[in-house]
Design a protein that fits this description.
By secondary structure, the chain is of the alpha+beta class. It has five helices and twelve strands.
Length: 254
């Protein structure tokens, strides 16, 4: 069948029109609207899905176009955003994943604009709100924490000797050139008798008190039992010091 030139032209026009209309419905408005693409890298996307909306100040400006694992061994996820060309995003802006529906768990991308003289171009990567920490950095921080805790334990162990030295008060009740057994009848009326050796003399004491007042009470009891020459002595780090010095140290500590 021979068709006239006019009919052939009409058929070609109709086919072209049908192709254009089909393309419009298949590709949507993107067929006529150019869109910018931005990339984000996340450690975790928390259920973010394709076509999830992208918001700036609660205004939808685009959607999630694609997602895939990064080519390196980090297992991080690259998210591609498709945004309207009318949106200018400063290069210091930050993107984060948010929940827009608590019941369904639907996610979206929120971009927080940060003032900067330079704007991102299509194909650039926008910063994510996640803090990326390498394994090496974590190990270094862990080692520093361990060293700090170790130093703290050592400091606590010797705190009394270095920062808060302990002062002990005793009551001396008897001295002898020769060593007398603690079970001697001389000490039958006392409990907890102790002995220390100083300047060639054995000296016998009672009490192991941290305050001068408590030692004074013990001294009164000993006087009442016939040892009227008993008196208070003081020790610092297991060394005998004068009571006056002990009082001065106690004031420094407290």
């Amino acid at each position: 069948m021979n068709l006239s030139r006019e009919k052939k032209t009409g058929i070609i026009f109709i086919c072209a029109l049908l192709l254009i209309v089909s393309g419009f419905f298949y590709f949507g408005t993107n067929l006529f609207t150019h869109r910018n693409k931005l990339y984000i890298i996340f450690n975790n996307i928390y259920g973010l899905s394709l076509d999830a909306p992208v918001y700036i100040k609660d205004i939808k400006v685009g959607k999630v176009e694609n997602m895939y694992f990064a080519a390196d061994s980090s297992c991080r996820i690259v998210v591609i955003l498709s945004l309207k060309t009318t949106v200018n995003i400063p290069d210091k802006s930050v993107a984060e994943i948010i929940t827009i529906n608590k019941k369904t768990g639907d996610k979206a991308i929120k971009i927080s604009l940060v003032t900067s003289p330079t704007c991102l171009l299509s194909g650039d990567t926008i910063r994510s709100s996640e803090i990326s920490i390498s394994i090496d950095t974590l190990l270094k921080v862990s080692n520093k924490i361990s060293a700090f805790l170790k130093d703290t334990v050592i400091l606590n162990k010797y705190e009394k000797d270095i920062i808060k030295p302990e002062i002990i008060y005793k009551v001396q009740l008897y001295t002898s050139i020769k060593k007398i057994p603690l079970t001697s009848p001389k000490f039958k009326n006392f409990k907890g008798v102790q002995v220390y050796f100083q300047d060639g003399i054995y000296k016998y004491t009672i009490g192991n008190e941290k305050t001068l007042d408590k030692a004074a009470l013990i001294k009164i009891k000993i006087h009442n039992k016939g040892f009227e020459d008993a008196f208070i002595i003081a020790f610092y780090k297991d060394k005998r010091i004068s009571v006056k010095k002990a009082i001065e140290l106690a004031r420094m500590i407290h």
